[in-house]
Design brief:
Elements: H1 7-10, H2 24-34, E1 41-42, H3 54-64, H4 79-93, E2 103-106, H5 108-120, E3 126-131, H6 136-143, E4 147-152, E5 164-165, H7 173-179, E6 184-190, H8 202-214, E7 218-222, H9 241-244, E8 247-252, H10 253-256, E9 265-268, H11 271-284, H12 290-303, H13 308-330, E10 334-336, E11 342-346, H14 360-363, H15 367-379, E12 381-382, E13 401-405, H16 410-420
């Protein structure tokens, strides 16, 4: 009999990747593949259902014909893209941004945030994040050895019974200060927020910024949906010189120009912070995709004159209104987003059939997972259960909600609405 160990026994994985529970994306994709209702309408993941604008596509094609655009770019990014970002954002920040020292390009916003964590977080350093959170924050922080301190956004008290605003999800500033300690190093902010759609108010940002100054924290402000605000949008880096001096702002050309697969992100901030983000990025992936950086540069150069930002914002607001009409029709409450392209809807009125069978990976999870599985299997519609973005202690806050991405063609939104009407027979 062979005594050769199995591969899993012979090669022990590092603790940072071992023992991870099956994530929401694989569960939802598995359900979508096995659903008897095909084709699935996927409103779960936040990828666009349509192409970038033609001027961006043409720029990418043109870049492929240039020799230098098919070779390595400088590790901090192509000069043309850094200059275009600095020019586009200087008026928004109320100061001149230096493209050489205050901008760095990364392989998507997610890798940019990983670079920020790797550049500043030592094992044992504490990082404050708000719940619900983008799930990649967790693995990125833990990969750097950081310890996470969570502060939940408080959902609207009437969110389960009537339509509310994403702005009604509030920050308990006393709770923020309570988790701070001598080990606190960084606070992560996300505005416009995923999955809530909240735009943090100027007053909230000032209070957060003042705490970070008081306790000497770096602010990592994830603003990847910054070009899709539906209400007034304040950048925390603009509030005071003291706050600006500790703020790294994260952006995404992929989100801005409907091309999430391009993986072109960027960070803006003080030179002394950007320097170490770029140093970590160099060691993670050295440089980012050259032709797509060049195309993104053209995007930033032309977007304003083509009124692309205005058009993009109006179109997304229209998609939110178009899709949410079905919740009004069904009498299901939802949280009306202030920005971005996600909608949270409350399904407390939907009764799952007694005895309905769920697979083990769903049966032991909160109700929103069961709702998501049920919608895929019975209606052919995929949404994301938001308890994935909470700690176990606070999952109860989201167990009746589902997240929908509305960045799809209008005919897809209409198809999703028609399928949601199939819930009537399950509603009380």
């Amino acid at each position: 009999m062979s005594t050769t160990p199995l591969p899993g026994e012979q090669f022990r994985p590092a603790s940072r990747v071992a023992g991870q529970k099956q994530d929401v994306w694989s569960i939802i994709n598995e359900a979508a593949t096995n659903s008897p209702t095909q084709p699935i309408i996927n409103m779960g993941q936040g990828f666009f259902g349509y192409n970038p604008p033609k001027f961006i596509i043409d720029a990418a094609k043109d870049a492929l014909d240039k020799v230098d655009c098919n070779q390595y770019s400088p590790t901090k990014g192509r000069p043309r893209l850094k200059k275009a970002i600095a020019k586009a954002y200087s008026p928004l920040f109320g100061r001149d941004i230096n493209p050489e020292t205050e901008v760095t390009i990364t392989t998507g916003a997610n890798e940019g945030m990983l670079s920020a964590f790797m550049g500043f977080i030592e094992p044992g350093d504490e990082v404050v994040i708000f719940e619900p959170f983008f799930d990649q924050y967790i693995s990125n922080i833990e990969m750097a050895g950081g310890v996470i301190r969570y502060v939940p956004l408080q959902p609207p008290k009437n969110g389960g019974t009537e339509v509310s605003s994403a702005g009604d999800w509030t920050v308990d500033m006393a709770a923020v200060e309570k988790v701070l300690s001598s080990k606190s190093k960084m606070l992560v902010l996300n505005t416009p927020h995923n999955p809530v759609g909240k735009i943090f108010s100027k007053a909230e940002l000032q209070a957060i910024g003042d705490l970070c100054v008081k306790h000497n924290l770096i602010i990592l402000s994830d603003e990847v949906y910054d070009r899709l605000p539906f209400t007034p949008f304040t950048r925390i880096a603009t509030l005071s010189p003291a706050i600006a001096a500790r703020t790294l702002t994260v952006g995404s050309a992929g989100k801005n120009f409907y091309c999430t697969g391009w993986r072109v992100g960027y960070l803006i901030g003080p030179a002394n912070l950007i320097h170490y983000v770029a140093a970590a990025h160099t060691r993670i992936c050295f440089s980012s995709v050259s032709p797509l950086q060049e195309a993104a540069a053209v995007g930033f150069e032309k977007a304003e004159e083509l009124r692309f930002w205005e058009q993009s914002r109006k179109e997304m607001m229209g998609k939110v209104e178009r899709f949410c009409a079905v919740f009004d029709e069904l009498g299901l409450p939802y949280s009306k987003p202030e920005g971005g392209y996600f909608v949270l809807a409350n399904f407390a009125r939907v009764n799952l059939p007694e005895g309905y069978e769920f697979p083990p990976q769903v049966a032991d999870r909160p109700r929103d997972y069961k709702l998501a599985w049920f919608l895929i299997m019975e209606l052919g519609l995929a949404a994301i259960p938001p308890t994935e973005f909470y700690t176990k202690e606070n999952m109860w806050m989201a167990e009746d909600w589902l997240r929908f991405a509305v960045c799809k063609e209008d005919d897809v939104l209409e198809g999703a609405k028609e399928r949601l009407r199939g819930l009537r027979k399950y509603m009380s």
